[in-house]
UniProtKB/TrEMBL annotation:
Record protein name field: 1,2-phenylacetyl-CoA epoxidase subunit A
Species of provenance: Glutamicibacter halophytocola
Documented EC number(s): 1.14.13.149
Keyword Oxidoreductase part of the UniProt annotation: yes
Gene3D superfamilies per record: 1.20.1260.10
Gene encoding the protein: paaA
Keyword annotations of the record: Oxidoreductase
The keyword Nucleotidyltransferase belongs to this UniProt entry's keyword annotation: no
Example of a GO MF term: phenylacetyl-CoA 1,2-epoxidase activity
Source organism phylogeny: Bacteria, Bacillati, Actinomycetota, Actinomycetes, Micrococcales
GO cellular component terms, A-Z: cytosol
GO biological process, one term: phenylacetate catabolic process
Length: 328
């Protein structure tokens, strides 16, 4: 049976008997669609790519709280305010499950957090765009959480157990988030001319960045092929993007709004949705840190981390006291 893992350059060309056996056990788990658990041997490149993806995902959830948290105090009613607060809290919870999953791969949460705060880690490009109006809360829920679900439902079957299991709960909550976003837009679409305009403007601004959440086109995605061979990813970036655009092309009709994409159509022959070319130069700039609000997002995160120092100190002091009283 072919190995799921290519030989790393620089590693000894002749693996030992034990190494071969470990790789064979790992390959069997992957090929049988079983799960790899933290106790199992895994090739270092598998551990590395999972740590990369899961921690980037965790950072996205945490940074992703900011655009919406910014609107809690300006929500148009008490009901909208409490729903938005619950959603933002959910995102914090998702970040925590994902950091825990990443920690099972051997990198501490402190180290992962440090990578984020020092700008060494990526997080989703989408959160580097500002949320300018209340309608953006609708567009974020409908388009951003919608794209997140389309991307993440297949991740519930990811080969790494702790990641797949975390995704099950996350997807359930994201699905509620998407509905609340759609419902905000639906209410605006039935409102005054100014409210309709605000909703359309939000859709126009979030359409393209939400399609970019799926990552670069397949022929420019260095990680996809190997991640699919390891059954971390189950579909390619373009496959998921097309699936998502097809879903929203139908849903937008219910809103009586339009997507800002004159080229959007279903190709009967190829049986797939075609959308306009996306601005990948802009995407590359955003993931390099030069998006509209990258520096603002990171600065806010650093500030929140500084402000939270006393909580971490108090929690450590309490844990130390508890440990002492258990010894006594
Ligand atoms: N933004 O080779 P690929 C949410 C990077 S949902 C920034 O294709 P891969 C919920 C990529 O990391 C959002 N960077 O990479 C929410 C790689 O860089 P590296 C988070 C991106 O991993 C909603 C390089 O480009 N969801 O937060 C992006 O095979 C509302 C080459 O790309 C997840 O993270 C991007 N959009 O595929 C919260 C889902 N795309 O590391 C609050 C899990 C690519 O080599 C409010 N992740 N890059 O230096 C995944 O499924 C994958 O990691 C992809 C990228 C599909 C994102």
């Amino acid at each position: 049976m072919a190995s799921t893992t290519p030989q790393e350059p620089g590693l000894s060309a002749v693996p030992s008997y034990e190494e071969e056996q470990s790789q064979a056990r790992f390959d069997a788990l992957i090929n049988q669609d079983s799960r790899v658990e933290p106790r199992d041997w895994m090739p270092e490149p598998y551990r590395k790519t999972l740590t990369r993806q899961v921690s980037q995902h965790a950072h996205s959830e945490i940074i992703g709280m900011q655009p919406e948290a910014n609107w809690i105090s300006r929500a148009p009613s008490l009901k909208r305010k409490s729903i938005l607060m619950a959603k933002v809290q959910d995102e914090a919870g998702h970040g925590l499950y994902l950091y825990s999953a990443a920690e099972t791969l051997g990198t501490s949460r402190d180290e992962l957090n440090d990578q984020l705060l020092t700008g060494r880690a990526k997080y989703s490009s989408i959160f580097n765009y500002p949320a300018r109006s209340w309608a953006d809360m609708g567009a974020i829920g409908w388009l951003v959480d919608g794209a997140a679900i389309a991307n993440q439902v297949p991740l519930c079957r990811a080969s790494y157990g702790p990641y797949g299991r975390a995704m099950v709960r996350i997807c359930k909550e994201e699905s509620f988030h998407q509905r609340q976003g759609f419902e905000i837009l639906l209410a605006l679409s039935r409102g005054t001319a100014a409210q309709k305009k605000m909703a359309q403007d939000a859709i126009n601004r979030f359409y393209e960045p939400s399609l970019m959440m799926f990552g670069p086109p397949d022929d420019q995605s260095p990680n996809s092929q190997q991640s699919m061979a390891w059954k971390i990813k189950r579909f390619s970036n373009d496959e998921l993007r097309q699936r998502f655009v097809g879903m929203i092309a139908e849903q937008v009709k219910v809103l009586g709004m339009t997507l800002p994409d004159p080229e959007l159509r279903f190709d009967e022959e190829k049986k797939q949705w075609i959308h306009k070319d996306l601005n990948w130069d802009e995407f590359m700039e955003v993931i390099k840190g030069n998006g509209p609000v990258n520096s603002q997002r990171l600065e806010r995160r650093r500030e929140a981390h500084r402000e939270g120092a006393w909580v971490r100190e108090a929690a450590s002091a309490y844990a130390a006291k508890q440990a002492q009283s258990e010894v006594a």
